[in-house]
Design brief:
five-stranded mixed beta sheet, 19% strand, 34% helix, alpha/beta, homodimer, 304 residues
Chain lengths: 304, 304
């Protein structure tokens, strides 16, 4: 529990969610804003926090979980800045500058790390020390948290761009990633599915074969996450995971990929408790942003 | 700096190195023992520490960097035990039981995490916050450290077993891993090279083509490490990396795989400072084991 109210921003490509929470993390007020340009949306974020603070009390810190690419290195002069996004009107937008007038500690991380933290705090990742949350939507991204903190190296992870085995005889599609072609995002994201089949899984009369193909690529990604992070659980969410049979096919193919190599109770059986769907739906991101806000306040407290 | 002398064990498949260091980590005495069975070797380890303590003073803690598979979860009842190794006479061998008579805190980790810590402390990884150390020898393994501590999830990482793209037209070799066939260890380790070509790279009159093939697989592994851990530097060591041209080929192929996607000064240019050879040679493991011993002592201190 922190001392003071906690501000939170979930910045998505189509909508922003802004909230103010009490010291226990319970939401006092939450609003949804359309994502326009930074010049149009950022002042609305500021206006929300002015109004919320006037109504509920002083803000002690703010957490932000944002689309990227994003500078999340606290030691960088560009911390909290959206870098080279193709999204018009957002390159160079800075959450640090936007929120400076409140004079409170900030913690800024990626959307997928925010969702991972939210699921860890209140959803399908509760009780996990190490948790990997993957979203398979238009793109693919993974956030890895440990003991309630997002892991990073010199920057956030970019799990969607790992290469996985691609049998071009079975699947001649070259891949849709403009950088890598057939990385896992280029083979298994919603964009890749639309480019390969001319429609999404939900529009197919019998998607079983497409589901098996996509689940195979995601299973190689899941196995790689197991081998390189040894998470206590993997959450797979996003629109592509909603296809009937996708989660079951992913579990089965991941068991096959690991081939019994990792001797651990977590990986025995059908993986129903190891690879799971998210539990919080739309609230994961803002829940994680509140946790980031708490961490910002705690960090300020320990530095003082 | 810790208070008291630091014991260290590097447990390898063919030799053990045991050492006692002063509180600054400088080695006072170091010995080398052949790796026989646990019943034969473990008493020699105990005997060394008895003699070393009698000559130099009280031991305050001991660090162990060992071959595996190994239980490195401090919360596990089997912490510090070698689990299901095919090595005769070692399954179930416990460093915790072996070293119990000294009554000091222990920290036990894998050989590759030990080498990573050693290179971070005193070798090619100095100054890195996040460091990935990969050995490409009989097998392939990677240790990842952050701020001088080995990262882990429910267990240590198993990076050698990730799958990488494998073009069977170019390279019809099925792979040598008994579990996964053509995982990266099954395609690019010393064992895989010997199985595919009938000899090692060092025995080839013109190894250039084989080097290019192996470097390509290792580059996919290196790119995956970048995307999933964002290390400040990658160290690649082990016998396979000693082949002429291997390190340069690995750098070039990794640049190609990443395709400019990660905008970071570390990844600009030819990667001469990003993917590097180890600097400590044979001393990396024992250096890391001393650091583990220091951490064991510090942990005990903070818990008291």
């Amino acid at each position: 529990m922190v001392d003071g109210l906690i501000g939170a921003v979930e910045a998505g490509g189509t909508k922003f969610v802004v909230a103010l929470a009490d010291p226990q993390g319970a939401i006092l007020v939450q609003e949804r804003l359309p994502t326009l340009t930074a010049d149009a949306t950022m002042p609305q974020v500021v206006d929300f926090f002015r109004r919320a603070a006037a109504a509920h009390g002083t803000i002690a810190g703010i957490g932000v979980a944002s689309f990227g690419p994003l500078d999340i290195d606290p030691a960088s002069p560009a911390y909290g800045t959206i870098t080279t996004t193709p999204k018009p009107g957002w390159s160079g937008a800075s959450f640090v500058e936007t929120l400076a007038e409140f004079g409170v500690p900030l913690k800024i991380d990626t959307d997928v790390n925010g969702a991972a933290l939210g699921e860890w705090r209140a959803g399908a990742g509760q009780g996990c020390r190490t948790l990997a949350y993957t979203t398979v939507g238009t793109g693919i991204g993974t956030g890895v948290t440990q003991d309630g903190r997002a892991l990073m190296g010199f920057s956030h992870y970019e799990a969607g761009h790992i290469r996985v085995p691609h049998d071009r005889t079975r699947d001649p599609f070259a891949g849709s990633c403009p950088f890598h072609g057939d990385c896992v995002e280029g083979l298994a994201s919603g964009s890749a599915i639309a480019a390969r089949f001319g429609r999404g899984l939900e529009a197919m009369a019998d998607p079983a074969e497409a589901v098996a193909l996509v689940a195979g690529y995601l299973a190689d990604m899941a196995a790689t996450l197991v081998l390189l992070h040894a998470p206590d659980r993997l959450i797979f969410g996003g629109g592509v995971m909603k296809a009937p049979g996708m989660l079951a096919a992913l579990r089965a193919a991941t068991v096959e990929r690991l081939a019994g190599y990792i001797a651990n109770p977590r990986l025995e059986g059908g993986l129903e408790r190891y690879i799971v769907a998210p539990a919080l739906g739309d609230q994961a991101g803002i829940t994680g942003a509140i946790l980031l806000g708490e961490q910002a306040i705690a960090l300020r407290g320990s530095a003082a």
